[in-house]
Amino acid sequence: MVNASAGMGSSKNVSSRRHMHADQDEEDSVHSDDSNFLPVHVHSEHLQDVTLDNDVVMVGMETERGIPVEEDLTGVSAESRKKRQVRFGMAVLVGFVLMIVLGVSIPANKPVAATRNNPEMSPDLQEEVEAMQRFIRISNLLGEISPRVRQSGSSQEWAAQWMAGLIEPPDSLQMSVPDSLDEETAPPFVERFVLATLYHATQGALWRNNYYFLYPKGHCTWFYFDNENFDPTQIKSKDSQAPRGVLCNPEAHANDYRVEEIWIANNNLKGQLPSELGLLKGLKILSLDGNRIHGTIPSDLAQLTNLEHLHLEYNRLSGEIEHWVGQSYHKNMKTLVLSNNLFTGKIPNSLRLLTHLTLLALDDNQLEGRPLSIVGNLKNLKYLYLEDNKFSDSVHVENSFPDLTELIHLDLSNNEFHNPTDKTWPHQWLSLPKLEVLDMSNNKFRGSLIVPKAPDDSKLKFLSLQDNELEGTLPKDIHTYSALTHLDLSGNALTGHRPDERLANMKNLTYLFLGGTNFTEGPFPTELTTLTDLRELSLKQSNLNGTLPESIARLTNLLLLDLEGNDIEGEIPSAMGNLTKLGFLLLNRNRLTGT
Asked: How far is CA 496 from the centre of its chain?
């Protein structure tokens, strides 16, 4: 998600580039020729009110389609579906009659042997009856931990039917149904059920790529991975080197909970997350970012005590962030990314317990309240993104994260953070030893713009204080931040003379915005024409007058030049024609002539 070396344009654009993007145009080709393995319903009857006793199996029937016909993607004809429906109904009827006539006693976890090699039954009919019996056993087994497996039309019921062989194409692996959840073979059986439920709940038949989901192999083979050195703490969802699908712990025993990672980003997942994800006891990474998942985060995820990385950004999740997210049993959590959703309310106090967090991204939601006292306790944070919310919190020297010495990125932009009237803005943040990005734009910081002299080893590259209520002159020590590439102080009540000769010493600047200020009137500062790495320069509405110097043609890397709303006069220098990279030139509301 974080890319400290990303190019930096406008403050908001930079912020968005620092986060993972849900690019819905990504078109992978993995497994694109395997559409025949997409499972669909080809019959409509569902079992209801199943009871098992020592004498007989009682089965009630209900007619209802689980998936509309238009979503059946395997090309099964209506005639074939009808034949299979009739055959399935006959299987149920014949099996039911045989059980009564023969007086079969059916243990809960054993198949009905009376149907096998029965000359009165065709092989297809025997197969259907045995699949039905298997489904009953699966439903009774999993009903303890997944009650919706007994709910007609649910994704959980669908997954059980697929594992029983009632869905075409069926689960041909046919794992042995455990006698109980305490049996040693239960964990992998539960995992396969959960993954099949996730597939159906998020409309797996419409995924861009299936990553071998539901293939007739072990579920630990349902993945695509081309980079064994991938680092999940540096995840970028557009990174083609990221894993895709299900990754298991190769050192775990075959009968342990082996699923450790689920990576299904930007894959057109639609629907709600099933609560059964909480049954994946070994899960460490859950990355479903860049999809169209809606609803709330299931509280059952609280059971994932080994979870370290949770990425659900760029979806349509809503509701409040529940307190369980920060409970102590998530003490190993390292990254929590819920950006670009529809979350509301306050962040829970329990988040302060996630002391191992290195990345916390809650930006681009509708969150409110006062989060700083909570996040200020997270001493291992490296990347903190709270921008584009409705936070309103008072920030001053006494609570300005003195312990967050590991911070590299801090983005509070587009909120209502402010400082007390008798305090200065929290300029101490500029001295955090590892800080590279500080974005406090579009808040309500006021008072004198104080910038202390930079530490000798300052790493600050990005500083944006635009659109606040800061006043005074441009600090004389601003030039000591020699690593800065992005400086935006526009939209504040700055006055006095620009220390242009000092700005000219900031040779690494590529982005300089000082517009919307009240500097003393004067001509275009020729000193700035020595900053030949500049790509974007804005001095709009900053009381410039006089003429444009010919030396402006030195800025050959400019992509944007904004001098709008000044009192510049005379001819536009012909040398500006040498600025061949210039894409945006704003000279309106001046007294210039020429072309």
From this structure: 45
Least confident segment among 134-143, 398-407, 530-539, 580-589: 398-407
Place of tokens 């302060």: 352
Chain centroid to CA 32: 24
* Run of H or E including 329: none
H helices, E strands: number in the chain: 7, 32
Chain segment 12-46, per-residue pLDDT in tens: 444 433 433 334 344 343 333 343 333 333 333 33
Number of residues that make up the chain: 595
Beta strand residue intervals within 32-135, DSSP E: 45-52, 57-63
Mark out the alpha helices in 392-471 (DSSP H runs): none
The answer to whether 433 touches 401, Cβ cutoff 8 Å, is no
Band of pLDDT at residue 423, cut at 50, 70 and 90: confident
Beta strand ranges found along 313-455 (DSSP E): 316-320, 335-337, 342-346, 359-361, 366-369, 383-385, 390-391, 409-411, 437-439, 446-448
Q: How far apart are CA 387 and CA 15, in angstroms?
A: 8
Residue 58's pLDDT is what? 32
Task: Report the b/e string of 345-367 with b at 16+ CB within 10 A.
Answer: eebbebbbbbebbbbbbbbbbeb
Q: How far apart are CA 530 and CA 106, in angstroms?
A: 89
Tokens 């694109």 -> residue = 32
Phi, psi of 39 (to 5 degrees): -80, 140
CA end-to-end distance (rounded Å), the chain: 44
Kindly tell me the sign of the dihedral angle through the C-alpha atoms of 278, 235, 535, 537: positive
- Report the 3 state secondary structure along 254-281: CCCCCEEEEECCCCCCEEECCHHHHHCC
